[in-house]
Fold:
Amino acid sequence: MPLEQPGPPPRACPASARATASPYIPSSPGPPAMSLRPEANWTARLPRDFVILGFSGWPRGLRTLLFALGLPLYAATLAGNLLIVALAAADRALHTPMYFFLGSLSAVEVAYTLVLTPRTLAGFLLPPGGQAVPVSVCAAQMGLFVALGGAECLLLAAMALDRYLAICRPLRYPQLVTPALCWRLLAACCAGGASLALALTTAIFQLPFCRGHLVNHVFCDLPALLELACGDKALQERALLAACLLLLVLPLVLILMSYARVLATILGPGAGAEGRRKALGTVASHLTVAVLHYGSATAMYARPLEGRSLEQDKLVSLVYIYLTPLLYPAIYTLRNRDMQGALRRALAAPCTAHLGCRG
Structure:
C-alpha cells in the first residue's frame, strides 16, 4: 500500500486567537490586562483586609499598661461628655444658644470616641501581628473619623461666632441667634464634615494599594493609608491639603478674630466687673479647647506626607484619642459656674423630692 503523504505542518495560532482562547495566560511578559468589569478592577486594586499594626510590636507588658491607663480615661471621657449633654438638655437655665452648642459639641465628642477608642483598646490586648480589619470597615472608620472631627472643628467656630454676637452685639443678639438658627448651624456643621469625609474617603480608596496591607497606625488614618498606595497621589494630597485648609485654618482664623473683638469689648471702659469676669471665663474656656483641638489636629495633618514618621504619628494619636477628649468636659464643667450650678441642682433634685430631705 502506498504510504500516506504527510500533510502540511500545523500553523501557529496567531497571538490574537491565543489571547481570545485563553485570557488568563498572557502572550508576553508584562502587567495583566485589566478586566472590562469595573467591580473586578476594584477588587484587584484593594486588599481583602487591612491589618492595623498599632503597638503590636511593643512588649506585652507595656501594651497591657497602656490598656490599663486608657480604659479609665475612656470611661471618664464618656461620662463627662454624656453629663454635659444631659445637663444641657435637662436644665432649663442652660437652654441658651451657648449651651446648645456646648451640648452638641459633647455629643459629637461621644460619637468621635466611640469610633476610635474601643478598637484601639482592643488592639492593646491582641497578640503580635496586628488586627485584621475588612476594607469596608476601614473605609467607614476613616469616613466617620473625618466627618466627626470636621463637625467638631466647625462647631468650635460656631461657638466663637455665638460669643461674639452675645458680647459685641447684645441688643440684637436675641433677634439674630434664634433656636432655628442654632439648629441650622448645627446641621451645616455636620453636613460640612460629612461632605469632606465622603470626598476624602472616596479619593483615597480609588488609589491602588500595591505596597501591602499592613497599616502602621492605631486605626485607618489618612496618612497611613496613603503610605500604602502607589500611582499618582497628587490629587489625594491636594484634597487632604484642602480639607486641612477648610477644617483647620479657616475656622481657627474665625475663632481668633471673634475672640479678639470679644476681648476688646469686655476689656473696654464700659464693661462691668461681674460681666467682665464671666465673659473672660467663657472666652478662656473656649480658647483653651480650641488651642487643644486645632493644635493636635495641625500637628497631625498639616504636614507634608513626604518625610513624616508614622511611628511619631501613632504617639500623637494617643493624645487626641485619649487625653484631649478628656480635657474638654473638665474645662467646661470645672471652669463654668452655670454648669456647676446645673450639676448641683441635678444632684440635689433626688434629695429635695424625698420627704426626709425637706426642712
